[in-house]
Amino acid sequence: MKRIGVADTTFARVDMARYAIRTLQEQGTGFRVLRRTVPGIKDLPVACRQLFRDERADLCLALGMPGPAELDRTSAEVASMGLMMTGVLEGKPIVECFVYEAEAPRPADLETLARRRAEEHAVNAFTLLFRPHDLARHAGEGLRQGFADAGPVRRTQ
Amino acid sequence: MKRIGVADTTFARVDMARYAIRTLQEQGTGFRVLRRTVPGIKDLPVACRQLFRDERADLCLALGMPGPAELDRTSAEVASMGLMMTGVLEGKPIVECFVYEAEAPRPADLETLARRRAEEHAVNAFTLLFRPHDLARHAGEGLRQGFADAGPVRRTQ
Amino acid sequence: MKRIGVADTTFARVDMARYAIRTLQEQGTGFRVLRRTVPGIKDLPVACRQLFRDERADLCLALGMPGPAELDRTSAEVASMGLMMTGVLEGKPIVECFVYEAEAPRPADLETLARRRAEEHAVNAFTLLFRPHDLARHAGEGLRQGFADAGPVRRTQ
Amino acid sequence: MKRIGVADTTFARVDMARYAIRTLQEQGTGFRVLRRTVPGIKDLPVACRQLFRDERADLCLALGMPGPAELDRTSAEVASMGLMMTGVLEGKPIVECFVYEAEAPRPADLETLARRRAEEHAVNAFTLLFRPHDLARHAGEGLRQGFADAGPVRRTQ
Amino acid sequence: MKRIGVADTTFARVDMARYAIRTLQEQGTGFRVLRRTVPGIKDLPVACRQLFRDERADLCLALGMPGPAELDRTSAEVASMGLMMTGVLEGKPIVECFVYEAEAPRPADLETLARRRAEEHAVNAFTLLFRPHDLARHAGEGLRQGFADAGPVRRTQ
Questions:
Q1: What Å distances lie between residue A114 and A53, A61, A93, A96, CA to CA?
Q2: Residues of chain E with C-beta less than 8 angstroms from the C-beta of C151
Q3: For chain B, how many structural domains are there in total?
Q4: Does residue D149 belong to any structural domain of this protein?
């Protein structure tokens, strides 16, 4: 039985973890979800560290929504560096799923973007853990999460 | 008996630790506060490291007030990275509570913002330590510290 | 028998790993290629860490294509720092091969640039592993990957 | 007998270590000063690491003067991150005392600023080591080093 | 017998290592030079790590020449952070000698700058290793590498 950690925040304006967990459960069985909600994105790295250490997670999904201010951008960089540090030290994947408020100015678009990105990152997390070799079949195909895929530069070859 | 470390600075222009500690004590019992005051925000990460190592803190609250100059912004980034590094290495939460002078140009507003943010981060610290599952009930609700909550994108669903 | 790890992404719009692996195999024998495809560039450091730890790779080639948005630039910096951290902690080389979409606005140019850079970094990876002393003969010669060499400042001396 | 490491540079244009050491000695007794001069600010973190490891320093004072060019600013950030990393790994304080040439365009002002900041950071270093609880009495008072104190936001309360 | 590691790149447009090694040898005896040439500046940290670990170097000199593009600046920052991380983890000095193409637009000036900076950093490396106390005599004197010294703020005192 694998263990998937899901870390999310009360700062985000969409409950992305709910969408991610629902999508994970639609992918298959053989895993257990461990959720930890923290105040903001800078708290996610330690939450993941604890999910790996205390809960023996095999992979973590870190969901966050940086605010629109300049300072929020800096916070997001520090949070990303912390998630990177944690993943490298643990040697286990952390799928970072951040949605910036500035990416979708209208509330409805933000909700849709956050839901879709959370769902698509959840699929990636599941694939990384259970079918890692499936990803190689889509190498270099310009896949995106939350927006339409960019696609490969040359579609026919 | 849990132990909460509180690290703050003589550089800050508001005694945020006083507000934070008072709020912590209003939340409940079962913990002891360990305070360490250092000169500036760049000294906070080592202070937290020592609170974890020497004083066996279970969580640290790091309070600081970066100045208005461009160099102060850079210092704040380095300090944040140091707090991140410390939290990840220890595997224990550090609740970072920084108030930028530039966020509230008028002194009275700065005092109010600093007090409120310190109090709300103190509540978060207490919750993380004693009632971590309470946070999940507010996931994705757009909670803020020091300002009014942004709220969820969709209030009704 | 040496082991070369190749980490690439589904986000990239060119299958750079295919070009890199073909070039590696043209260089000689005595090694085995281990490939791991992940969603995006921020997932490359942990992929390399796992290639070193679980697959006993002696060197990794990390291939990625940051998108054109400002946020993609920041992601690339965090990914680079993660690859750096991993290489330093393992004490083993990670040849980073990133192609920025902004480097070649036209699709055909992007394909050519990505292919050439992947091929030339693959040659570098092979040389680092099997003939490290060959590189010293080209020290300070202004070699480039994907573009024409800049050449040494003084060609005759 | 405590040990205070003092690391400084030949790049700086003021002998800040001389002022810092004189001030340390005026604060009291019970410690020994260990000095290590290196070429530039990027060499300070390893100098501190060696002062902690080889000379058993209990605290380090790192003095530097970044030049006026844009590249010097970047060097200062890397140096600061290195000092942070060293302090966190050792779990011991490094008091960073940097004076930017751009802070005082006139030579006489630069000399005065560098001297005062070195002296005031030396007092902080001594206090951190010998009377850490004294700092808490000045928490949130807007203390500055090298310039006049900013003071607390509310002087009367 | 001390060991000095010299790491350089094929990307640089001047063979700085040649100048550095010649200068090292003019300084005295009692050491052996170990050279490792890598493709680019981001490969220097692992090269130094290997020189410390596998070749038992006591100090490394890392020579590189970041290109003129904006992306090269970012690469240089990541490379610098990697060198910093390596030096701190090893507790041994890495003398970073980077020459930015943008510092000397004319080829002849770039050659001269690169040669002089490599030579002066080589002298620093030798001094750090064999006569560390000599540096203290020049503390705060505004020494520079590759350009004329800035000098101390007050020449007479």
A1: 28, 14, 21, 13
A2: 13
A3: 1
A4: no
Asked if A83 contacts B81 with a C-beta cutoff of 8 angstroms, the reply is no
With a CB-CB cutoff of 8 Å, which residues 70-89 of chain A face chain B?
A: 71, 74-75, 78-79, 81-82, 85-86, 89
Q: Return d(Cα A108, Cα A102) in angstroms, integer.
A: 13
Question: How many CA atoms within 13 Å lie on the side-chain side of A46?
Answer: 25
E135 vs D38: CB contact, 8 Å cut-off? yes
* Residue D144 maps to a domain: no
Residues C86 and C50: beta-carbon distance below 8 Å: no
CB atoms D17 and E152 under 8 Å: no
Q: Which residue of B has its CA nearest to D61?
A: B43
Q: Which of B46, B54, B98 to mutate to test the interface with D (most CBs of D within 10 A)?
A: B46
> What does the block give as tokens for E114?
């690169």
Residue E26 identity (one-letter amino acid) = E
Total-model pTM: 0.96
At residue D155 the predicted structure's pLDDT band, cuts being 50, 70 and 90, is low
Distance CA D142, CA B8 (A): 12
Provide the pairing of β-strand D59-64 with D94-98: parallel
Q: A27 is written with which tokens?
A: 């992918």
CATH of the domain at E75: 3.40.50.960
Nearest Cα neighbor of E24 from E3, E40, E49 is: E3
Mean pLDDT of all residues in chain C?
A: 95
Across the interface, do D145 and B89 touch by the CB < 8 Å criterion? no
Q: In the prediction, which pLDDT does A156 show?
A: 44
